[in-house]
Design goal:
Blueprint: H1 2-10, E1 20-27, H2 34-48, H3 51-60, E2 63-69, E3 75-83, H4 87-98, H5 111-120, E4 130-137, H6 147-156, E5 159-167, H7 174-183, E6 190-194, H8 199-215
Parallel strand pairs: 1-2, 1-4, 4-5, 5-6
Antiparallel strand pairs: 2-3
Length: 216
């Protein structure tokens, strides 16, 4: 007993377990102009600075990464995995998200390729208990045409996919219907943003829902 106590005082404490790895996949296809792109990255940064989200990130010891995606062969890991182990780490990640340059311009929308690329990134965080892709987009797939296959592949690998569907203003919701039918995994959900101006509200709501699921 005394020897165990002495060792516990000498040895460094074990690193906290990673509850979930959450990858944020941002649509930067040709339909997203410069102002709309800025709304997306600023909305993400603002969400990470929200007190309720910060609390959940720290409680779950969440690992975060950001991918930008558009057409065939146009996907980039723009913020590699970082563990949210302290308020300072969240501050650094939010600042990096706010300053992100755009990786691609004037390209199609290859949703399936975005899912495949995002799923491959989880090999770097294999110790995390849950793996979640948080994908946003403002249009259905119009290139690559692999979304159904890649969604099934991700689901078989135990990866969850949720979405923010960015709709035009009005009552119709074709993008939400596409993401609900083809993109999210079983048990996943879609949050609808009415225009890019509504994206900051939608991403905050979505992160809170995902992170409360992680903890609860």
């Amino acid at each position: 007993m005394l020897r165990a106590l002495a060792l516990s005082l000498i040895l460094p404490a074990a690193a906290p377990a990673c509850e979930t790895a959450l990858l944020l996949a941002i649509d930067i296809s040709g339909s997203i102009d410069a102002g709309e792109y800025a709304l997306q990255v600023q909305g993400l940064a603002d969400a990470l600075e929200d007190a309720a989200i910060r609390e959940e990130l720290l409680r779950g010891q969440v690992a975060l990464a950001v991918v930008q995606w558009s057409g065939v062969g146009r996907q980039a890991l723009v913020l590699p995995w970082r563990r949210m182990l302290s308020p300072a780490e969240i501050d650094r990640f939010a600042a990096a998200a706010r300053a992100l340059p755009r990786a691609f311009t004037a390209s199609d929308t290859a949703v399936g390729e975005a899912i495949a690329f995002a799923a491959a990134q989880f090999a770097a965080v294999s110790d995390c208990r849950r793996r979640v892709i948080d994908i946003s987009g403002d249009g259905p797939e119009n290139a690559g045409f692999t979304v159904g296959r890649e969604r099934r592949t991700a689901e078989r690998a135990g990866i969850e996919i949720n979405a923010v569907a960015i709709e035009d203003m009005g009552a119709s919701a074709p993008i939400s219907a596409f993401y609900r039918r083809w993109v999210i995994t079983r048990g996943g959900f879609v949050i609808t943003a009415r225009g890019l101006a509504d994206y900051p509200r939608a991403i905050r709501e979505k992160l809170l829902r995902e992170l409360s699921r992680v903890i609860g």
